[in-house]
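Morning!

This is the sequence you dropped in the shared folder:
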Amino acid sequence: MRIGVFSNTYLPTISGVVRSISSYKAALEELGHEVHVFTQGARGYQDNEPNIHRYVSIGLGLPNDLPVTFPFSPSIDRLLNDLRLDVIHSQHPILLGNVAQQKARQLGIPLVYTLHAQYWHYGIYMPVRFLQEPYNRYITRRVKNYLRGCDHIIAPSNSMHDLMVEKFQVQKPIAVIPTGIDLKAYEQFDRKEMRKKFGWGNDFIIISTGRLAPEKNWLDLIQVASQIIQNNSGVRLVLLGDGPQRIALERQAAELGITDKLKFVGMVPYDEVASYLVAADLFAFTSLTETQGLGTLEAMAAGLPVAAFNAIGTRDIVVDGENGILTEANSPTLAHAIERTLKDRDQMEKLKIGALKTARQLDIRVLVKDLVEIYKNPMRQSESRG
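The structure's back. Tokens below.
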């Protein structure tokens, strides 16, 4: 099959959406399919994979650090007429998502769409507060209308499937397909060697990954870590990622007196993230706005138990007492739960085994076959996973 993927973001940007596209592109190509990605411009960046087509984009210094892409390109229009795509897979409901919808209609081919984010929570990025609610209402209407124009919709978790049905009254077929994990990426790293490389010694390492932005609720995670660090010697928190909230988080750590126990690693190339996860002891996460909890699944692939708030997306992967810890969205409660588990080696070992079992069930080489079936028959109704 020839598949066209339209996304407002792709490499060199690092995000969950980019990881999803990149992972499935590689898995689809491994099966012999041809995947073309249509995405933002990236001046100075050299693509090292085939079939990446870029629109012009410009950085506006927005709080989310993402460029704005101009959805017009005569050369790409000509290319689309020649490619003879079988299906278009859109990753966003605006900008290049609009192009994807328009081109699918013009070419007479199916449009598949993955709802990656709860965009109606992103009003916090509006420069003035009184615009936040109008934005949230606008994007909610936009997403609802966009869903109506798709032939098949992919939800990255059962929670998002249910939310789309309840919030948007979606009548189109919906499939639940999480972003899969390539387990081989984790097997190449030796835990002892990585811990020595990072200088972690015998400390208990709590790790988390993601964009350092308000919607990820990092302030609560710092609070959780502070309580554990103050009550337990030899505990450290390591954060992978960067973003507009980093300075505020560093300030909070200083106020809580844990600066020397908190390491901001910054942005890490995706193929190096696994080395940090393999070397850590527990993954902690306090976001309340996830769609699938990709970071938690990556942690489980490294054999890490996950400690998190019981929130949409996260609870689709984390099962309390089986592969991790789930608590109400309360920092002291989560901190107490983690502390109890730290002192119970048998429980920690049980959770590690459960985490690896969950990761194996979501191997991308299995999930990609479900995606291909949707591409082949987008009007077929799918069942939720789990």
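Headline: The first helix runs from residue 16 to 30.

More detail when I'm at my desk.
O.
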